[in-house]
Specification:
This protein is of the alpha+beta class. It is elongated, with a radius of gyration of 24 Å. α2 crosses α5. The chain folds into 2 domains: 145 residues, no CATH class; 142 residues, no CATH class. The strands form 2 sheets. A 5-stranded mixed beta sheet has the order 1-2-3-4-10, with helices on both faces. Strands 5, 6, 7, 8 and 9 form a 5-stranded antiparallel beta sheet that branches.
């Protein structure tokens, strides 16, 4: 999740535990709710020490505990009159909230690192959701503007109201994921992809080997079922040579490895392709089913020459309009 939402939800959880009566400990929990993302500062060292990568050791119980211990020790000097034990407890709570929220999304975190590589990966929300980002920014503004300017009862009411709103949002996401999971199992799919809408999900099945890639997906809406019929693509023999392109599927096949090499992001995402026949060549848009905003997904645009089979790429980033998914052919086989 975004940093604003991490800090705000850690603040609200700490608020709920204290009943809003211990500002120092609420602040400690909120601060710790954002600190795991400080691993971005370790970026130069992450290639040499993989544990320092984003969503690495700072997103584990070990990392959170180290941060909370440091905060408790600093509090002895910086926050006189506070309890180091309670500072530790609320910073631990805020850090664990961060881990839980990231694991709730379609990103993965290693809660037991460095002792285990097991990943927490629920796929119930987007890592960056514009709805929660906007709501969190507005909520911060309201809480800060109310502090010391309104009666205590009003400020407490706002805190409890926001806690209820975020609790309801996370519950709706969890229930939507539960419903989508049932549809996934019944349809024989292997994964669920959340979208910005808690009622709309993609169910996917990906099969990839050394010389074969297959993807099928449908759109599922809670309460309505499958609202976009299955789209299926299967390509084989990536390493065949050049020569005249026999079909749109052949054009997709020839573009696959070059497109994956061009975009590491795309190669690590659930992906699909749209092919358009144009005079003298085929235009293939490889796009991500996982990452999209405002109805558009990042795409790699490959041009395959119909006569020679040579592959070239457009220099500028392309975007795929997710509203046109229904226009995709049912099968590329």
């Amino acid at each position: 999740m975004d940093l604003f939402t991490h800090v705000l939800i850690a603040y609200l959880v700490s608020f709920g535990v204290t009943g809003g009566t211990a500002p120092i400990y609420i602040a400690a929990g909120a601060l710790a709710g954002g600190l795991p993302d400080s691993d971005a500062l370790f970026f130069p060292l992450a290639k040499r020490f993989p544990l320092l990568r984003h969503h690495g050791i700072t997103h584990s119980i070990t990392g959170v505990t180290i941060i909370a211990t440091g905060g408790a020790l600093l509090s002895i000097r910086l926050v006189p009159g506070s309890s180091p034990v309670l500072i530790f407890a609320f910073m631990e709570l805020g850090g664990l909230t961060h881990i839980a929220l990231d694991g709730f999304t379609h990103f993965a975190v290693p809660p037991f690192a460095p002792f285990s590589d097991v990943q927490l990966h629920v796929d119930a929300d987007r890592a960056i959701n514009l709805f929660t980002l906007g709501l969190s920014i507005v909520s911060f503004y309201v809480l800060l503007s109310e502090r010391g300017t309104v009666p205590l009862a009003t400020w407490l009411f706002t805190g409890w109201l926001l806690l209820a709103v975020y609790g309801a949002y996370l519950a709706s996401r969890g229930l939507g994921r539960w419903a989508a999971e049932g549809a996934r199992k019944s349809g024989g799919f292997t994964a669920v992809i959340p979208t910005g809408n808690p009622l709309r999900w993609f169910l996917v099945e990906e099969r990839e080997g050394s010389d074969r890639f297959a993807m099928r997906f449908v759109e599922y809406r809670v309460g309505k079922g499958i609202t976009l019929s299955e789209r299926h693509m299967a390509i084989e023999h990536f390493h065949e040579g050049n020569g005249p392109v026999a079909s749109p599927l052949d054009a997709i096949r020839r573009s696959y490895l070059p497109a994956m090499a061009r975009s590491r992001f795309l190669s690590q995402s659930y992906r699909y392709a749209r092919v358009l026949a144009e005079p003298g060549h085929y235009l293939i848009l490889w796009f991500s089913l996982e990452f999209h905003m405002f109805g558009r997904a990042p795409a790699v645009a490959a041009r395959v020459d119909a006569a020679s089979g040579s592959v070239s790429f457009e220099p500028k980033r392309r975007w795929f309009d997710m509203r046109t998914l229904a226009d995709l052919p049912a099968h590329y086989l």
